[in-house]
Amino acid sequence: xxxxxxxxxxxxxxxxxxxxxxxxxxxxxxxxxxxxxxxxxxxxxxxxxxxxxxxxxxxxxxxxxxxxxxxxxxxxxxxxxxxxxxxxxxxxxxxxxxxxxxxxxxxxxxxxxxxxxxxxxxxxxxxxxxxxxxxxxxxxxxxxxxxxxxxxxxxxxxxxxxxxxxxxxxxxxxxxxxxxxxxxxxxxxxxxxxxxxxxxxxxxxxxxxxxxxxxxxxxxxxxxxxxxxxxxxxxxxxxxxxxxxxxxxxxxxxxxxxxxxxxxxxxxxxxxxxxxxxxxxxxxxxxxxxxxxxxxxxxxxxxxxxxxxxxxxxxxxxxxxxxxxxxxxxxxxxxxxxxxxxxxxxxxxxxxxxxxxxxxxxxxxxxxxxxxxxxxxxxxxxxxxxxxxxxxxxxxxxxxxxxx
Length: 404
Ligand SMILES: Cc1cc2nc3c(=O)[nH]c(=O)nc-3n(C[C@H](O)[C@H](O)[C@H](O)COP(=O)(O)O)c2cc1C
Known about the structure:
The protein is 34% helix and 23% strand. By secondary structure, the protein is of the alpha/beta class. The protein folds into two domains: 7-180, Rossmann fold, CATH 3.40.50; 189-397, CoaB-like (Rossmann fold). The strands form six sheets. It has an eight-stranded mixed beta sheet, sandwiched between helices. It has a five-stranded parallel beta sheet with strand order 2-1-3-4-5, with helices on both faces. The protein has a two-stranded antiparallel ribbon with strand order 6-7. A hairpin with a 4-residue loop joins strand 19 and strand 20 (372-374). The longest helix is centred in the last third of the chain and has 19 residues, at 380-398. It binds flavin mononucleotide. Residues 13-17, 40, 42-43, 91-94, 123-124, 128 line the site of flavin mononucleotide.
């Protein structure tokens, strides 16, 4: 993560979904955020302040006239120590108060005194949420510059169905990270390919590889957090679509080629992390191949389209192309040869056995200039940021005017 700050003030108001916020606090603490919880009186009827005190490792503030030390006026001091104010769940009542500037508790006082970014996560019964009063209040808060997360749809705690459910703690966490991330990729269009491809012999059998897609998805997520407009073209994986990215799902190398070629010319950065099959069966049997013989000796294979080569051939000089090389031996030499042959600007090399399926990876980043960086083993999420750090410096050199 590349963050502008990590100090969160978390306003918790009196809705049934308060219990889910315990998990959000746990997630934030696990990832080294500092969390100051501020509860409304009614929120304490759902979960005790003690739970949040233990999870956040800080005193919870509730009453406007409470102080953690005599020299502090908490509702004024805390905003000065806050990088983002998050209100989750936000009740219809508190939302209405925020619109009108009613400052009758610690949280609403603090909201008025806070000048930085804020994220509102409304959660309530469907009728309360869709009521024109609530809808108008949310629009007003958006005009004030508040970021608002849409509630989920589905079964609600009150026994009804509809829109109003608090999003999963992981989604709120991701939204907070997104808002707090540095925006050094703002204005950049980034295309990422990820996952394996499947080359079918018949409707149920295919040739593929064990790529999980984790590396490409981590890069797409990190680039999007950092302000890029991200397009992710993915082969079959078990991963959820990263938020704030346009994800296009494909199966075969030919489909991936087609989707990439549609948009590659408009991209500033192209990161080819997919493990695309080099060969596919020459003929496809539209119905299942029967096991009529004891051995099947002849499956003729043909080359699949070379995506990175095709993109590189039409490359504009301000475009930046990054490839991946998963090799079993002579890792650096083979990676450099591949980079040169395919006219890439940078290549990320690793040993094939190390790269697949795992949550961590150890890579070598090689630039066309020969500049080489050996990175230690680290989580793919951290590696994604390292790769982006490395390439944004070069991208700035080739198209400085685009970088904000
Ligand atoms: C069991 C129960 C569940 C409630 N859940 C919600 C809710 O999810 N969202 C909401 O806006 N209000 C909900 N309310 C109503 C609020 O608790 C009420 O409006 C309260 O005054 C909110 O105060 P606060 O905004 O100061 O926290 C619920 C009330 C009860 C009794």
